[in-house]
Amino acid sequence: QVQFAESGGGLVQPGGSLKLSCAASGFLFSVAAMSWYRQPPGKERELVAVISPTGDSIFSADSVKGRFTISRDNAKNTVDLQMNSLKPEDTAVYYCNARARGTHVYSWGQGTQVIISS
Description:
- By secondary structure, the chain is an all-beta fold.
- The chain is built from no helices and eleven strands.
- The protein has strands at residues 3-7, 10-12, 18-25, 33-39, 46-51, 58-60, 68-73, 78-83, 92-100, 103-104, 112-116.
- Strands 2, 4, 5, 6, 9, 10 and 11 form a seven-stranded mixed β-sheet that branches. It has a four-stranded antiparallel β-sheet with strand order 1-3-8-7, with no helix packed on it.
- β4 (33-39) and β5 (46-51) form a beta hairpin.
- It is globular, with a radius of gyration of 13 Å.
- The model has no long low-confidence stretch (mean pLDDT 97).
């Protein structure tokens, strides 16, 4: 059974930082591209960042480029998202998932809530 356990969310002031982590299980993590998505309040879920199986190729959405960094540890089956210079518009529930053929592969986990507010 595939599972994603996202953690690390919270309430942070604008300009602050957070590091999200996702523990994945139930599939062959080391050969899967992994991704972070987010769903802002009242909006559709959107892609934030993607990392290749070996970590040598990374995509970041324009809205987070230069501020967010995706990384992975294939020994631990984890994928992280370091978020710096946070803005109120980064407020969302953040999810991880495997990615293939331009979309997510598995059912969603619970996500982790990020709120950016002063």
